[in-house]
Amino acid sequence: MTFNYDEYVRTETIPHMWCPGCGIGIVMKSIIRAFTALKWDKNDIAFVSGIGCTSRMPGYMDMNTLHTTHGRALAFATGIKLAHPEKHVVVVGGDGDATAIGGNHLIHAARRNIDITLIINDNAIYGMTGGQYSPTTPPHMIASTAPYGMVEPNFDIAKLVMGAGATYVARETISKGIMLEKYIKTGLAHKGFSVIVAESTCPIQFGRRNRLADPVELMHWLKNRGVPKTKAAGMAPEELQDRFVTGELFRDDSRPEFTEVYQQVIDAAMKKENK
Amino acid sequence: MSKRMELYSGNELVAEAAIAAGCRFFGGYPITPSSEIAERMSKFLPQVGGRFIQMEDEIASMGAIIGASLAGEKSMTATSGPGFSLKQENLGFAMIAEVPCVIVNVMRGGPSTGLPTAPSQSDVMQARWGTHGDHPVIALAPSYMREIFDETVRAFNLAEKYRMPVILLLDEVIAHLHEGVALPESDEIEIVNRKKPTVSREEYEPYADTKDHVPPMANFFEGYRYHVTGLSHNPKGLPSTDFEVVHAIQVRRQKKITEHLDDILKWEERSMEDAEIAIIAYGSIGRSATDAVEHLRAEGVKIGLFRPLTLWPFPEKRVAEIARQVKRIFVPEMNLGQLVLEVERMAKGDAEVIGINQVGGVMIRPREIVSRVKEVA
Amino acid sequence: MSNRVELRFSGVGGQGAILAGAILAEAAVYFDGKYALQSPTYTAQVRGGATKVDVIISSDPIIFPQTSEINFYLAFAQRAYDRFYGGNNPGNRFFRDMTEDAIVLVDSDLVTNFNDPPHRVIKLPILQLALKELGRTVFSNVLALGIVTGITKVVSDEAIVNAVKRRAPRGTEEMNLKALNIGFNFAKKYMEQKSIDPVTV
Hints:
CATH architecture of chain A: 3-Layer(aba) Sandwich
Number of helices of chain C: 8
Shape of chain A: globular
Distance between the termini of chain A: 60 Å
Strand order of the largest sheet of chain A: 2-1-3-4-6-5-8-7
Largest interface: A-B, 43 and 47 residues
Helix content of chain A: 25-40%
Low-confidence stretches of chain A: none
CATH superfamily of chain A: Thiamin diphosphate (ThDP)-binding fold, Pyr/PP domains
Mean pLDDT of chain C: 90
Order of helices and strands of chain C: EHEHEEHHEEHHHH
Number of helices of chain A: 11
Mean pLDDT of chain A: 97
Oligomer: heterotrimer
Low-confidence stretches of chain C: none
Number of domains of chain A: 1
Helix content of chain C: 40-55%
Structural class of chain A: alpha/beta
CATH topology of chain A: Rossmann fold
Radius of gyration of chain A: 19 Å
CATH topology of chain C: Pyruvate-ferredoxin Oxidoreductase, domain 3
Number of domains of chain C: 1
Radius of gyration of chain C: 15 Å
Distance between the termini of chain C: 10 Å
CATH class of chain A: Alpha Beta
CATH superfamily of chain C: Pyruvate-ferredoxin oxidoreductase, PFOR, domain III
Largest sheet of chain C: 6 strands, mixed
Number of strands of chain C: 6
Strand content of chain A: 15-25%
């Protein structure tokens, strides 16, 4: 039996606007599979994004969807979650959206440990605007604003959000859809701020400039850059240069979740007021 | 029956009124001279089961209140000039996505960091045109303490009624002044809530035209599962680049204002019946102007006051009438000439329009208005 | 305007001048049923520096909300006096806001350089008086309130007593009222000597 994705899709909005060979579809499917596995009621999910290719995903999803301004998805999502702490709030975005223009919101959502799941489709490029470099474009790779190669250092998104206080952090390439789905599912079920970095591909804007125009070839290139956590543990730092570690990278179930802490504030304030 | 007088600052009154109007979410960021609003909301919101959050920046606080409003909570943020500049991005989102919310801007001297602790009225045009693109705006500017309370409540009511952000413009003078004021009893306060859809999810069009041009608004998690986007969209809320669809929705958003002017516009007039000279003033300078008019009337000058409480939409028709009645209109403002441009536009040469402008962070005083009026006469 | 009285209290942070302004406005609003406002300098601006509070009390609703014809000025510090009285300088906007018959009350130990002000000046070592009579300088602002209200009658004695009680921290009520009475008595003596008409609202 084939998997039925339609339950969570606004089928009337298909075909989507993504390019042939784009990695976002795999991420979207992984998210839908995770929702299905968790049996989440689509009426209870707010699905929020910023601006960019990945951020067009909510338009195709059949739930309470919000396509906000560039980088600001987590700010809007924080308002939704505080208004309805009992509902599910899920955010998707690209690397530029989530870590450049949205970098401040990212670290503060992590610091609060608010119960929101963020899924980043990291294709290392600004796709929609025409292939400009992002905070995760690997060194020396060509972008439309890096014609001589990327000269800035990268963010390691996983380390960034771990340092900022996220309590579930995982990373996987889109070549391993099953693992990606598993991490997303765990992140969704986790109480606290969870980040799943989906290392993804943009054959048109990233691949074509870097002799990786073929989507399959680009996927192989991406897959080979990933190093599973267990394998990475035995590797020297120089061996890990220009590569990224995959797997469940961090989990902490002990830190209090923000809306639960705030509920205690409400309970105390109301008790005091009614005395 | 009103309660007896109590002392409040303008900022405190904004918080009192917001909670009375049903506000249950506040997202803020510290900024002088508006911070007391956030401080008070942080204390009182949890007492009524509401939620307060100090966000990481001004942009985020504007985003958070939009999110909370979409999820059904009446929401507010408060800021001042530099923060108001940062909020423009998401303010535009609230306008295109038609999300009710209230933005308080306690005006201080600008541009940039300017005069953080001194008053100004120099964000009047920013309130109208600060965010990019064509959009309707409602901006209210109270002068007195009781008006701060009433206009804050009205800001929430208009936001809910017309499904849009409403800007409340205070200035540092009335924000920090502690003054005796008699507030209404809670049963005297009119509260308006957003119109909800009565149709099924399949039939629901969150951005469809309606008789009053304000489509009903479903909250998130109520089963309607619609799409909200800052992209131009069709009545269903899905992105659209269709010329006719986009044009029609833009025009409908304007009509929310232009076809409800009687409901939205509010002003006070004094001694206008036989006036040959008019003063048009608002906010704290509305008080200076009132004093000046009383003084000049006592000296036999046929002068009247027009004090708009709704700055945007601008009371065009009434100002045009006044221009036909009087020979001269003075417009004192703590800026280098902003609302005076609207007055000139409506006067169309029927009356001479003279600005009285001061931007050093000090209020324009009644005697300064009086002497200017006499000088020209 | 006879039905409107404007007062300015000034000092440096911590002396209680701002609180005295708040108490006076509260006395007018809560206990005399008058219209009143008080407008303190904004703390973020003046941390550690000179502060002032302007109080307006009126029998009619207050239209223009700032002081421009000050009837009474109080200074607890030289720095405050220089800044908010405007040192007998007609070019200073604060000085220009004083009415011709204004009364100026200064702590004579703390304000020593007067610059020959044209107003009636009352010099009194307020802090020292509070220290001597009450053992603590913290009551000096309430003592000054007794003088201010005793001379100006801008609020009723009963109203200022009630307003001071309302604000007094638990256990300090008696001392605060004692401070107020010292002020009242000084004002009474002063008025008898100088035969000044009160500026009752």
